[in-house]
Amino acid sequence: MIYQKLKASALEGPADTLKMKDEEQYRWLPQNCPICEKPPSKFVGMRGGRAHRQHLGVECSISRCGSCGLLFPNPMPIPLNGPDQHYGVLPEDYFQHHDMNVKGGSALKLLHQAQELTGGKGRLLDIGTGRGELLRAAIQEGWTVKGIEPSNAFADFAVQYTGAEIKREPVERCGFDAESFDVVMLAAVLEHLYNPDETIREIARILRPGGALFVDVPNEKGLYFRVGNLYQKLRGRDWVVNLAPTFSPFHVFGFSPRSLRALLKKYKLKPEYWHVYAGKAMVPNRGGILGGLERFAANAITTLSNFGELGTYIETWAIKV
Ligand SMILES: [Zn+2]
Question: Which of 25, 168, 283, 312 shows the greatest Cβ crowding within 10 Å of its Cβ?
Answer without folding.
Answer: 312
